[in-house]
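Morning, I've got a small favour to ask if you have a moment. I've been staring at a protein lately and its backbone has me curious. You're getting the sequence in one-letter code plus the fold written as tokens. I've dropped the whole record in just underneath, so have a look:
=====
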Amino acid sequence: MAAKTLSETEFPEGDLWVFGYGSLIWKPGFAFVEQSPARLIGEHRSLCIYSMVHRGTPEKPGLVLGLDRGGACQGIAFRVAAAERKATISYLREREQVTSVYREVLRSVWLKNGARVSALAYVADRSHNQYAGRLTLEEQLRLVRQGHGNYGPNDEYVIATVAALETHGIRDVPLHKLAAMLHGEAALHHRT
């Protein structure tokens, strides 16, 4: 399956903004000159991607985040200097598009200071076989507990993401519930 990527002409001139909503928040892996809390409207953060490389295998998939249709997402926008733009895009494609499960898009995001910028984001491809859709908390827990891939255990990914969100004052109730369950706080088990 071919990766859904933007052509060079679709990117705006100058500096590049990248919207991080998951592991990019705590492990961007690229040089940036500025970061800001940001809000993307029209998609929400969701554990909706079966991970078969980074946090799982085809035999025992894990679960990672994607931007899925509807709602809004609080995250971090990173400004990359124009001189680093090509290298950053190349790096992100290698990291995010290993199985072509995301669509590479430009989305409007609103920075904390009220400015609106166009940012590169990776959105779940609902037609891809790794798209998990909405899973129950129990199913998420099972997949995350079993998942272990090239980047390590799946539970570490979820816990590190929640810790990074908290550092930035962002609360994602479903993800926080899952992290609490992974920490053994079973009292939070499936109360909605």
